[in-house]
Amino acid sequence: MILNIDVHLAYQLSQPTDLLLQIEAADLDDQTLLDSQIDFFDVPDFTRVPADEALGNRIWLKADGLFRCTYSARVQIARSAPDVRTLEAVPLHLLPGDTVRYLMPSRYCPSDEFQTFVAAEFGHLRGGAQIAAIRDWIYGAFSYVPGVSNAQTTALDSFVQRQGICRDFAHVLVTLARAATIPARFASVYAPGVTPPDFHAVAEVYLDGGWHLVDATGMSPAETIARIGVGADAASVAFLNIFGQADFVAQSVSVRAE
Amino acid sequence: MILNIDVHLAYQLSQPTDLLLQIEAADLDDQTLLDSQIDFFDVPDFTRVPADEALGNRIWLKADGLFRCTYSARVQIARSAPDVRTLEAVPLHLLPGDTVRYLMPSRYCPSDEFQTFVAAEFGHLRGGAQIAAIRDWIYGAFSYVPGVSNAQTTALDSFVQRQGICRDFAHVLVTLARAATIPARFASVYAPGVTPPDFHAVAEVYLDGGWHLVDATGMSPAETIARIGVGADAASVAFLNIFGQADFVAQSVSVRAE
Amino acid sequence: MILNIDVHLAYQLSQPTDLLLQIEAADLDDQTLLDSQIDFFDVPDFTRVPADEALGNRIWLKADGLFRCTYSARVQIARSAPDVRTLEAVPLHLLPGDTVRYLMPSRYCPSDEFQTFVAAEFGHLRGGAQIAAIRDWIYGAFSYVPGVSNAQTTALDSFVQRQGICRDFAHVLVTLARAATIPARFASVYAPGVTPPDFHAVAEVYLDGGWHLVDATGMSPAETIARIGVGADAASVAFLNIFGQADFVAQSVSVRAE
Amino acid sequence: MILNIDVHLAYQLSQPTDLLLQIEAADLDDQTLLDSQIDFFDVPDFTRVPADEALGNRIWLKADGLFRCTYSARVQIARSAPDVRTLEAVPLHLLPGDTVRYLMPSRYCPSDEFQTFVAAEFGHLRGGAQIAAIRDWIYGAFSYVPGVSNAQTTALDSFVQRQGICRDFAHVLVTLARAATIPARFASVYAPGVTPPDFHAVAEVYLDGGWHLVDATGMSPAETIARIGVGADAASVAFLNIFGQADFVAQSVSVRAE
Questions:
Q1: ipTM over 0.90
Q2: Which chains touch B (3 or more CB pairs under 8 A)?
Q3: Which of A220, B156, C125, C190 is the most exposed place for a label (fewest CB within 10 A)?
Q4: Is D97 within 8 Å of C61 when comparing Cβ atoms?
Q5: Architecture of domain B84-236
């Protein structure tokens, strides 16, 4: 599958402000950048630095006045996405060092609070079967409701309120997976099936020796997803961090499958 | 300075249980392992994996019955520890990629809540001078009180209650530093001046192009500290994670300067 | 049923300290005090004031050194306890003024967070049938585990962790009832079936024009309960508030059915 | 002082919905209702019930479609408002029974978390002098910023973020007063100096044998305030509780001094 991605962002700044941007699709084994172009208006220079796990990049820049950015890319997705139910858990003592931090609780994913719940509801399952059951439970029990969550909302809040957006669905899945001692992280992605069109977020779980994309909203099969970056949770992969005051002007995200 | 470290741990397990141990002092440019010996009793084998930022190691093992571990090391500390007040902040858009995650909130360090407080109380300062002022404020306003915090206690709780142990002092410092947009992380360490003797924890801040140790408890100057590992907060560098049930039997930590 | 209640409390105080005690069984229509005796040692005087809703009393006193209190009572319980499932909800606009505050969230019962959950899981039921379903769900899904909760633990924490003691079971029931717009409050009580013997706590719900006792732990039928006091949650009916420092010396609670 | 109060509310309901309204100024010793008129459009009937502490009323009603309410009143304020600094604390063991619940933590006022802070910062003061110092500290350290708080925001959140609206200022004052063992409650009020014109909220503290109004926002002297109702915190005295879905249509509040 080939995705055509077009993004436009505009913010008004009242003084020189540091920005950290993470919107470029990553060039990876399972997703190839065929074409990619990012442009800023009136920004003298910027610095691209590797993002978490060296998966994709972040861009540091300093802007003033009207900040405008356009990004266009064509990405070929060539991802074998096995049925998650068939995947085996990796025994804990065989987990690679770089997966360990994704067993631990993070800002929005306090997995340490959920061990009893996970043991009671999903403790009879293991590995991919357990993840699939958690994903299906979230999909069935939660409502996709824009506007009910904000930058303080954690997976614990979402778990209680049973509603949220893609960010919240991913946080709950990541949290419950970690509580089941399966490494799980948060992925910021593009996907064509998202309604309304926007940046999207899904979970990644470490099973059978690799990371696998899982979307509890049911919006985007793994074969259709272009990853931007990964991290412990949404705190690590915001599409834009503004270190100062800014007024929103405009934003559009378009993702089309050829 | 040369430190002699001796640790003994014992836990009773009722079934085969995965353990993740992080107690070995790291071998680094500014701290040289002269001697190091770790022993387990009745544990057939174990796996050492790199810890976060490849700074030090974690050990995976599977144990049953009485788990006992002894660790002894001699570590030469050769750290130039400049007065933190003299260190310059690195402009945000010049921060290396691998420091960015330490600008972001984490499980115990919800720095996103503290921007107004930091701006109001410490906004007139920059860089190392700002960190020193934060450190001195914590040292003056907080009481070192064992037993008031637990595994759920965040920097926000400690900030309100103004008491805690080394873990909590480090969390508050890390949180306020991040709110001031200075990368900060949590270090699990050995230090000779800790009373009562125990594992210790301090903050690390990124200033002038490097990481610098800062201890808000005032117990341990940077020149006397042997680092075990670093991470976003205490969730990332527990000395022992037990993935199951265990009964505490014994623990001793001794750190002596030669 | 006649209950024989014997309580002994002892605390060591290091300076003159205000205490607020709420341990006397209330004399009510459905529970008659046959005999009641409270004694303090070395406390010059004390003041009995009405407790919340004028149901029972609190005792203010000022003590120093070793504070000892003994309380003995015989209470005749004559309570018709209908099957909660048969009780009708009172339409909201017909609720008496003094029940309204028990519709609202309180310190340990943030019912405002649970409206979606209650609507999804129990929204097909009304009144007593809804309360019975909530009670049975808590009883089935939660484990009675002493020591996992503390004075900060809210119903939200307990809901996530699915464990706790009588206080926590009552908080969750009160919270979910309020989220279902049924007035609910917390009752501090004595009951003979509590293991280990201790002060007990249950919920009260307002149905069919009266308050009805409901115990989600399953330990104590309504016919066997002697009420001490009621309030919004545990914050309102602690058996002892100590306004200062005190060391626990001893406590015993005995409740026997004649 | 005589206040002229005019309120208009309009909400669109999609089905018959229970509403609980608390907007009528109370008729009290220190504020006399000279004139008062409330009208609903297309609401067949309603029930007035006493509010908390029998101070003022709440109105239950059931409405459908466009709900409109107009309220007009003239209130004569005749309140002797002594300098709060001159008021003596009532010794705890002499507090009346009906003030005790206002010593306890509530939904938005977790005073149990703030004892160390209050002791450290305000522990050298007593009674009204302590309340005045707390009020002045809040006034100086906090920013009045509409839109940063919502229905979940507690005094702990506001304390950390140091910003909010009248509700939040009152919550912090109530919380710190209770942590200082001075009974404190939340009052929903009208006052002429509020900018922009709206319902207002202040704290009440129990000193010298009576309740005294204190406004940490500095907007409204006690002599200019008309009380609607009181309660543990904002959860108890919302001007409107809607038990169902509603769309906001219009709201205006005008308070003018003759």
A1: yes
A2: A, D
A3: C125
A4: no
A5: Roll (3.10)
